[in-house]
Every structure is written in C-alpha cells, then in structure tokens.
Design brief:
- This protein is mainly alpha-helical.
- The protein has one domain.
- 72% of the residues lie in helices and 1% in strands.
- The chain has 17 helices and 2 strands.
- A two-stranded antiparallel sheet has the order 1-2.
- It is globular.
- The N and C termini lie far apart (53 Å).
Length: 379
C-alpha cells in the first residue's frame, strides 16, 4: 500500500525546485570540466570558421565541407561567440543541460496523471543519473537538444492520439519534428514516423495515421526544409547539398565511414549506456510485458517505440551509444509505471526498489558535486 509522502517529498513536489537543486549540484562540473578536442573543440572551430568566412547555412572544417550536421547547433555557438567575443563553455553547456531539464519537464507533464509523486521523483532522478543521459547533459553536443525535440513531438502525438482535437497541436507536431531534423538530421524524422506507425499498427488503427502525420505536418516540413535546402544550395552549391542530403544520410546508414559497428552493437552497449539503471529498467520492462503487469496504453507506447527505434538504429551502419538517447526516458518511465502498478499487496519489492533508486540517484548526484572540484578549470 502506498504510504503518505514524507515531508521531504512534499517539499520537492514542485519540479521547479527539483530542477533548481539539480542545477546547483551539477554546477561545479559545468564550471570546471575540460572540453574534448575530438568533438567539442571541433564544433567550436567550425563555428569560428563560419564566422570568419561569412558562412551561415554551410559549415566547413579547415576548408573542407562539413555537412555531417545541420546548422542549428552551430548557430547557437556562433551567436554567443559574436555576442561575447569568446567561447564561454559553461554557457554553451547550458544548451545541453537545459534540454535535459526540458525532457524531465515533458515527462513530468506526460506522466503526471498516472505516476504518483514519489514515483515521479524516483523516475526523474533515475533518468537524470543515467550514464549517457547525464553525460549528454554536460557536453557540447546536439544530441540532447534533438532528444528534447523528439520527446516533445512524441508527447504532442500522444495528446492527439488521446483525442485532443486542437488544431494547433497538428502544427506544433510538425514544428517539433522539423526542429529535431534541423538539430541532428534524419533521425529527427524517422523516430516520430516510426513511433506513430508502430503504435497505430499495434492498436489496429492505421487509418488514424493522418491525425498526426496529416497535411499540416507535411506542409510544415516541406516549407521549412525547402527554405533550408534552398539556402544551402545558394550558399554551398549542388555539391554541398548532395553531400548533406545523400552522402551523409545514406552513406552513414548503409556503409558508414565513421562509427561502423556490427548489427548487435546496441544489444550490449545499451546496458552501460543506460547504466546503472539498465539493470533495473530493462528487466522490469521485460517482466511487465511478459506478465502483463502495468501494461496500460502509455507504458506500452513507450516500450513499443523504444524497441522499434533500437531495431531501426541497429540496421544502420553508424552506431554510437549516444544515438539511443531519445529512448532512455521512454524505457525509464515505462519501468517506473510498471513498478507502481506492481506495488500492491502482497508485493513489497516495487516500493523497496523505488526507495533504493532514490538513495542511489542521490549518491550519484553527490559524487557529481565532489567530482566537479577535481576537474581542471576551463579558461
């Protein structure tokens, strides 16, 4: 039986308080960690080169076309470089940390009516301290920003699917999908498309596919992508546009020139990418699916989307653990929804796992505070 929330739980019932606490705990790491020369420094150099040479839509590295990524994240770096006159690393890190907090806020709204407060706090703390989620929130990469837009798009679709008929949601869905594409590329398009298709197929409602992927969504994507690609063509020519649309897309998918991994790579890498919580969330999700415990529509949608996305990404040649970032929250919250549903007499272990999760997450955040003082300062 669910016990009355403690005084501490009631104090932390406002998510804004919790997010502020997380920011304070992670601030030492934000202020004192060094950037990596392979990725983060490379992004800064690309932004500097764009500012120096007057490029806006097309990015270059040492004079060679860099069509690997869309320009949105580079624009953020360029804007603050121009505004401040230098690269303020802690400020740029906020564009990974704040999207991470945005993902937590979306799940708070999404699951708020189904997860009781103690379970929401436990799920939130577990997601924040997931290895590659926490790492992605502290580095200069666009993965967390894309994951935020994808989470937002999936939440909007869920509202539409549950019967919210507001026209604005259809436009917002298309805008969120485009924002994900404009942040990291075609994965921002594939995940929402796949999630909607797989969910409606499982519900035998494929006729409703056009509710989210209707003419408004396609119009938003066509107009915004058309403007983007036209500007790329004007600035970089046909060769750069071909590189952006075909070489970087199909080349990475079929025969990657970077990060080539075997098809089963994610079957083992997800265990440490989602560590330490994969040891809890994946077994609980499998147990709930097999035993049909807590298999309400929302956790089923989370798990179906996650499984389909991992399968899709396994088919691509290029693989990195961070590429699975968009499904970390889905698996995590599905597991805690299942645990809450299982927390009925005579079972006591789900409630025990929730309390242990809070203790472990708290200890990990405390370690982050301590670790922050051992990283050399960034100047």
């Amino acid at each position: 039986m669910e016990t009355k929330p403690s005084r501490l739980i009631r104090l932390l019932s406002d998510q804004r308080v919790r997010l502020g606490l997380y920011l304070l705990l992670l601030l030492p790491l934000l202020l004192r960690r060094e950037i990596t020369p392979t990725n983060e420094l490379k992004y800064l150099e690309i932004a500097d080169e764009a500012l120096r040479d007057g490029h806006f839509w097309c990015m270059f590295q040492d004079g060679s076309a860099y069509a690997d990524k869309p320009p949105l994240y580079f624009w953020i770096i360029m804007a603050f470089r121009r505004l401040l006159g230098f690269h303020c690393i802690p400020l740029l890190e906020l564009f990974s940390l704040l999207p991470a907090f945005g993902i937590l806020a979306v799940f708070e709204q999404w699951c708020g009516s189904q997860l009781r407060l103690p379970w929401r706090i436990a799920a939130e703390a577990a997601l924040l301290t997931t290895a590659f989620f926490l790492g992605g929130a502290l580095v200069l990469r666009m993965d967390m920003l894309m994951a935020f837009f994808l989470t937002l798009a999936l939440w909007i679709f869920w509202k539409i699917d549950r019967g919210d008929s507001r026209t604005g949601l259809r436009w917002a869905f298309g805008a969120a999908v485009f924002a994900a594409i404009f942040t990291k590329g075609p994965v921002g398009f594939l995940l929402p498309l796949l999630a909607v298709f797989v969910w409606l197929l499982s519900e035998h409602r494929l006729r409703d596919f056009g509710q989210a992927w209707g003419w408004r969504t396609w119009l938003v994507l066509a107009v915004l992508c058309g403007i983007w690609w036209f500007c790329v063509y004007r600035e970089g020519g046909r060769e750069y546009l071909d590189n952006l649309l075909f070489h970087q897309t199909f080349g990475r998918a079929v025969d990657s020139f970077h990060h080539d991994r075997p098809w089963y790579y994610y079957l083992y890498s997800i265990w440490y990418a989602m560590g330490p919580w994969a040891l809890l969330t994946i077994p609980v999700s499998v147990w709930g699916a097999v035993r049909k415990v807590g298999m309400d529509p929302l956790p089923r949608f989370f798990l179906l989307t996650s499984a389909a996305f991992v399968l899709l990404m396994s088919c691509f040649s290029a693989k990195l653990q961070i590429y699975l970032l968009p499904v970390f929250g889905l698996v995590n919250y599905a597991a805690f929804l299942i645990l809450q549903a299982a927390d009925t007499p005579p079972r006591r272990w789900p409630g025990t796992l929730r309390k242990v999760s809070l203790c472990v997450a708290g200890a990990m955040l405390a370690l982050c505070v301590a670790a922050g003082f051992f990283f050399p300062a960034v100047f």
